[in-house]
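Example record

The entry below shows one chain as it appears in the dataset: sequence first, then C-alpha cells.
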Amino acid sequence: MSNEPLRGCPTCGTPVAAAHLGLRDFTWVSNALPGKVAPMDFDFVLERKGKFLIIEFKPPTARLPVGQARTLREARKWADVWLVRHQDGDGMAMVDFGDGLVPLSVGELAAEVALWFEEASKS
C-alpha cells in the first residue's frame, strides 16, 4: 500500500511517506476481520467541558460507507457531528450540521467551530 497520494500531516507537515504510518495504517487489522469490515477514524474531534464536536471531511461526490454512516449517526447521540464536503483549493465547503447542506467558506466554517467552542465553554 502506497501512501504517496497523501501529502502530509496537517499538524506537523511531516510527509506521509516519511511518517511511516505503522499502526495508523489500518490494514493490519482489516485483514484480520471478515468480509469488508474495517475500522474507521474520525477526521476531526474537539472536546470542551465534556461536549464533543466531530467533523468528517469528504470530497463533494464521495459516498459515506455504510459502516461510517452508522457510526456517525450513533455518535450524534452524544456529540455534535458535522459532515463537511470540500474540494481542496476552492475555499468553499458544503456543511451538513445534521439538517441539510449549507454552503460556507472555509473562514465561515472556522467561525462556526469557534462559535461551537464558545457555546460549549459556557457549561
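Notes for this example: The chain is about 30% helix and 25% strand. The helical segments are 16-19, 27-30, 66-75, 106-121.
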